[in-house]
Amino acid sequence: MSSFKTCPESCSETCPKTCSDTCVKTCSETCSETCSFTFPKTCSDTCVKTCSETCPNPCSVSNPKSSFSSFSMTSKSIIGPRLCSTVAPKAYSVYGCGFGEKTRISTCSYRLNAGSPGGRFGARIMTGGCYDYLQKSEKATMQDLNDRLASYLDKVHFLEAANVTLEKQIREYYEKKGLICQRDYSCYFKTIDCLQEKIKEATVNNGKILLQIDNAKLAAEDFKIKHENEAMIRQCVKADVDNLRCILEKTCLAKADLETQNCALQEELVYLKKTHQENVAALLCQLTDKKVCVEVDAAPQQDLKKVLEDIRCHYETIIDKHCRKQERWFKEKMADLCKDAATNTECLETSISQISDLRRTLQSLEIELQSQISMKGALECSLLETEARYSTMLAGFQKHIDAYEAELCQVRSGIEQQGRDYAALLDIKSRLEQEIATYRCLLEKLDIKS
């Protein structure tokens, strides 16, 4: 069907729009043949007069207002899926591509008019000489309605074909997307499972290493406490040894003093013995050299030699007793000191051996602690490297996931848009069917009336 309509009678002006109305004029355009009146209406107005004005040269195009005394038909142009409503039953016609966003639909509404005073497309009761004109107009109107019905049926078939094509495209789109969505990700799942197992193993190893580090710390603290206790014992033993050394020095000094005193007493004893012998010899010499006879009436004197012997014996006894006492005391002291020295020596040797053992243990523990610290540093470095590597891998996986999510959102938006378009086309189809039904009812009424 051509996109331009021509007045079938005397008005040869063509409609510049792609609508299905007869002799449709645009704003400020003039019918150049018989109707010289300027139309202020839009593309949806037929070649009729507005308000209360009268066409001086009435054109003989089909006027639906002249065809029916109780109905008036107007058409409106609607763009898009939205349809403007009118008062009475409506019918819709479509032109354009048949689907898409900018689909133009013209609606025809039928209203009962009782001949308003303003004229405004009012129905006039034609009598007398106008009866033939009315019959011609009715025939032209019926012919035009038949043409329009045929065009509507063509458009319905075209839209049905377009719907079939669109459904086929949607089905192919879904099949394509379904095939894309059904890609084999088992290799990625295996890689993810392997990486998760490695992460779990690394986590377990890290836990074991942390447990070993904690155990090493606890053992080091225990050894440190033992070392401190042994150091305190060592200090106590060292203090005891120092005290015993002081006592030993004092004992040695006392021994030296006693030996000096013994030597002095021995020398004094020798000197006294010598002096005594000299005195005794001198006295004996004097006694032998001088003989004095003195008679004294006195008591008889004791024997001087005997007295000296008694004195000598007494002093020798005292000296021997004192020497034995001093020697016994010295021996007892020396025995005690030797016993203490032996005991202290044994304790000192035991303490020295314990100190050497503890020193060796401390050195071995320090070496083990340094090795554990170095192992800990190496494990921490490996842990950081592993975390960085896996974080990089996870970031890559997250990027892939984001890309897939964005693609999924695009697919969903496309599906929703296709659904909306399909719903709009179904709505248009239903309204076209309603328009066809309306025209069928109108034709039936016309048949009944005729």
Automatic annotation (TrEMBL):
GO MF terms held by the record: structural molecule activity
Coiled-coil residue spans: 142-176, 348-375, 415-449
GO cellular component, as recorded: intermediate filament
Domain IF rod: 138-450
One family name in Pfam for this protein: Filament
The entry's keywords: Coiled coil, Intermediate filament
KW Coiled coil (keyword) present: yes
SMART domains attached to this UniProt entry: Filament
Top-level taxon in the UniProt lineage: Eukaryota
Glycoprotein keyword on record: no
Family stated for the protein in its record: Belongs to the intermediate filament family.
Protein name: Si:ch211-156l18.7
Species annotation: Cyprinus carpio
